[in-house]
Amino acid sequence: MLIVPQYIPIMAKITRKPVPRKAAVPKKKAKTAVAKPKAPAKKSLKAVKPWTPAEIHQVFSRFRKANPEPKGELEHVNPFTLLVAVVLSAQATDAGVNKATRALFEVADTPQKMLDLGEESLREYIKTIGLYRTKARNVIALSAKLLGEFGGEVPRTRAEIESLPGAGRKTANVVLNMAFGEHTMAVDTHVFRVGNRTGLAPGKTPLDVELGLEKVIPAEFMLHAHHWLILHGRYTCLARKPRCEVCLINDLCRWPEKTV
């Protein structure tokens, strides 16, 4: 028997070359944030040297000497017309209110006469004043409330006056001071500015300034204090260009930007 030799193919061993790994790319370092220097904080009026009692007495003594009997500039003939005038003066000038109320108060100087006049006719008298429609509605409503709850008289407490339509704390303080001689401090935009700018009574709100002024002003000056401060803010310590050169208290004022 013929034996045929079998040929067994020998498989070449395949050797795979290792794939070279890519070198790791080092990560970029995050940039370190450089803190910007903070802007210097504005100097707070509260940080200014406080007024001494002697200095405050000097301020109001000067105001009294220059104007012994200051008067409010809203024209009125009785507590009721004063109340109405103050309600109408919100976001309006005293001069503008006076121009409208001179004719009005000739025909309606009591709550009953105001109700008899009526809201529509009242609007015609005060239409030159800002927000006159809302104000006319409030004046008619407060007149009705005065007749219904207070016997037609202006009440003599802050809470009762504030309960009247259109009347807030400032209105109550003005009426209590001017009509009834109470030692109240009505803070309008002028008093708020003077209290903060001079450093007499710094505060973030009108109430802060009101309470601050009441705390530091001697009782002998309180009857007229808010009038002196209003007039000072209206004619001397102006909002944009204060007239420091003619200011009665420029040597005592704590305002860092005063021009004298």
Automatic annotation (TrEMBL):
Keywords attached to this entry: 4Fe-4S, DNA damage, DNA repair, DNA-binding, Endonuclease, Glycosidase, Hydrolase, Iron, Iron-sulfur, Lyase, Metal-binding, Nuclease
Keyword Cytoplasm found: no
Gene Ontology MF terms in the entry: 4 iron, 4 sulfur cluster binding; class I DNA-(apurinic or apyrimidinic site) endonuclease activity; DNA binding; DNA N-glycosylase activity; metal ion binding
PROSITE patterns, per database record: ENDONUCLEASE_III_1
Enzyme Commission numbers on file: 4.2.99.18
Record's keyword annotation contains Lyase: yes
Binding site for [4Fe-4S] cluster: 237, 244, 247, 253
EC main group: lyase
Cofactor descriptive note: Binds 1 [4Fe-4S] cluster.
Catalysis: reaction(s): 2'-deoxyribonucleotide-(2'-deoxyribose 5'-phosphate)-2'-deoxyribonucleotide-DNA = a 3'-end 2'-deoxyribonucleotide-(2,3-dehydro-2,3-deoxyribose 5'-phosphate)-DNA + a 5'-end 5'-phospho-2'-deoxyribonucleoside-DNA + H(+)
Pfam families: EndIII_4Fe-2S, HHH, HhH-GPD
GO terms under biological process: base-excision repair, AP site formation
Cofactor needs: [4Fe-4S] cluster
Record domain HhH-GPD: where: 88-235
Assigned protein family: Belongs to the Nth/MutY family.
Biological role stated in the UniProt entry: DNA repair enzyme that has both DNA N-glycosylase activity and AP-lyase activity. The DNA N-glycosylase activity releases various damaged pyrimidines from DNA by cleaving the N-glycosidic bond, leaving an AP (apurinic/apyrimidinic) site. The AP-lyase activity cleaves the phosphodiester bond 3' to the AP site by a beta-elimination, leaving a 3'-terminal unsaturated sugar and a product with a terminal 5'-phosphate.
Name of the molecule in the record: Endonuclease III
Species of provenance: Bradyrhizobium niftali
